[in-house]
Design brief:
Elements lengths: L1 H9 L13 E3 L5 E3 L10 E3 L5 H10 L4 E6 L4 E5 L2 H13 L4 E2 L9 E6 L7 H10 L4 E8 L5 E9 L3 H5 L8
Organism: Eumeta variegata (Bagworm moth)
Protein name: Pre-C2HC domain-containing protein
Length: 176
């Protein structure tokens, strides 16, 4: 009974399996090429004080900061921009003029956090940082993890700059 259900769910009414669209497009040689991944838009900025929106909006026009959408929400005015440059300009404008707001870090500014398990408690966090730097990782900080009662665990948190090599730490962290 179950196999009949699965079969009918995966076929169309004509009995053939439906075609699946892919991101692959043929190039001039007839070979399939994979479409490049889309860049993620910058995070929204939430202007906390709604009464200041008119002033912020007029300053955005004056400073040539283009925003795609401004939406009234429970937490404030949600401002969406199209690119990272406008995000940075709007972010610095709000900071310089002491407007209360909230946002998240840009994708390219985020750090990579890796938990390294199985590290003996006797090895200090500074020694782990030195060893990771010797392996050519761009380490920002290393912290020893503890239980709630303060007892050190055999795990450390390594915070690295976001590079291609730093992403590999999650795959091939065999020798610390």
């Amino acid at each position: 009974m179950l196999s009949r259900f699965h079969q009918s769910a995966s076929t169309s009414s004509s009995g053939r399996t439906p075609k699946v669209q892919s991101n692959n497009t043929p190039n001039h040689n007839g070979n399939l090429t994979k479409a490049p991944p889309r860049a993620r838009p910058p995070p929204p900025i939430i202007l906390r004080n709604k009464s200041e929106w008119n002033a912020v909006s007029s300053e955005c026009s004056r400073l040539h900061i283009n925003y795609a959408k401004a939406q009234n929400t429970v937490h404030g005015i949600k401002i969406t921009v199209n690119n990272s440059d406008d995000f940075r300009k709007l972010n610095s404008f709000l900071i310089n003029n002491n407007y209360p707001f909230h946002t998240f870090a840009l994708e390219e500014k985020r750090k990579i956090k890796a938990v390294i398990k199985g590290v003996p408690v006797e090895i200090e966090a500074e020694e782990i940082k030195i060893d990771l730097e010797r392996q050519a990782y761009s380490v920002t900080t290393v912290h020893r993890m503890h239980r709630r009662d303060g007892i050190a665990l055999g795990m450390t948190l390594a915070i690295l700059e976001k590079t291609e090599m730093a992403k590999d730490i999650l795959k091939n962290l065999s020798n610390v």
